[in-house]
Amino acid sequence: MSSAAEHADNWDLRHEDFNDNDFLYEVYDVMRQRSAFAHTDHPFLSATAGGAWVAVRYDECYRILQDWQHFSSNPTPEGAEQLAGDLVITLDPPRQQKFRKVLNPYFSPARMKALQPQIRAETDRLIDDFVQAGRGDLAQVAWRQPGIVFFKYLLGMPTDDVPLCIDLTDTALNGETEEARMGAWGGLYQHIHDAVTARMSQPARDDMIDVLLTAEIDGQRLPLQDVVSNAMLLVQAGLETTANAMSFAFHHLGANPQERDRLIAQPDLLPRAVEEFIRFAGSIHGIPRTVTEQVEMSGQSFCPGESVLVNYAAANRDPAVFADPDKCLLDRRENRHLGFGAGVHRCLGSNLARLEFQIGLEQVLERMPDYTLAPDAEAVFHGSSVTRGYRSIPVVFRPGQRSAA
Ligand code: HEM
């Protein structure tokens, strides 16, 4: 195993040493202490021949996110090859803002809140699968709930297709090999493509596919490819991030029963606890920006075409901003975390994510209030990937009744 200092010289998020998540944060500590910007030969997403810069301190990450004129979300030419279509996340204003104007109302707090009963019922159904046994795997709740909600209630996929779409998404995100992952993305793309095409000849419904199909940007409807690609982006952006953070929370509360009891006794703490889990879990470790013109920040010069990864996870543990950054403090008050980003690309789905997360916690704590990590089985953390979180969280608890869901 290499030392934290060696890893900090050339950070590679996919390195197997980072299956130890605490060790990864030790490496970020070293990187942050050395400089605001590290360099890596191993960027993921938006690759360039020269590697990429990595912003690891809060202040610089925040400033980059505000300065889209110098730090564009357009990919590098190599990165663009991996993309199909005009995606909201890889555009800059003003076109990006026009996309957001179409999509924002769909994700408004009021609209997401209306989904509350459905999200609760779906969460209950997942818990029903094992609640009578007195033991189960909470990763099943964390990883499946956001997918079911998304495909069934937001994309409006036919209900029969939902299990297949969720399986394909699971493989696309967590498949063992690159080939399996790519194959599953291809399958999912085709599936969503077919669903969108079918909907073009059907009466309008009030869901995500309709929003994208009827959107007019600069007086023109979106081409079919952009409709499908943006629907896929939403799947990618919304599922693994929420699932990861939720898996951290379930694990943390199972390992710390006094914290679990505190949340049960003080449910008013839940919204703050959700924010803290999002800060602490570090769902996103680097989204790239491409430098548009020569610019300097904190003594570092950047040249046009260079790639800069904004490391939200490292920024969210910056001791200059967060007291006790490596502690998960459920009642943390000052918590201006960058978990949902900042600036023009700030997360579109944050209202949905918070709701799914809070309801996931509420139902688990209500229906298995005494749950703890199973003493005879290990939780499995999958770290050497962009998708980082617990893939298995075996727990034990006093058996309960199935719900009416
Ligand atoms: C805990 C869960 C989530 C986290 C931590 C998260 C995090 C983020 C972050 C950091 C960004 C900024 C990306 C950038 O700066 O380029 C972002 C953007 C985005 N997120 Fe989320 N997200 C979450 C859940 C969701 C959900 C549930 C959805 C939708 C269903 C979603 C959809 C998006 C989209 C479409 C963007 C791009 C917005 C734009 O480019 O204008 N996210 N998210």
TrEMBL record:
Pfam families: p450
SUPFAM superfamilies with a match to the protein in the record: Cytochrome P450
Cited InterPro entries: Cyt_P450, Cyt_P450_B, Cyt_P450_CS, Cyt_P450_sf
Keywords for this protein: Heme, Iron, Metal-binding, Monooxygenase, Oxidoreductase
Keyword Flavoprotein listed: no
Gene3D superfamilies linked to this entry: Cytochrome P450
Coiled coil (UniProt feature): none
Transmembrane segments: none
Record GO terms (molecular function): heme binding; iron ion binding; monooxygenase activity; oxidoreductase activity, acting on paired donors, with incorporation or reduction of molecular oxygen
Membership in a protein family: Belongs to the cytochrome P450 family.
Protein name, entry field: Cytochrome
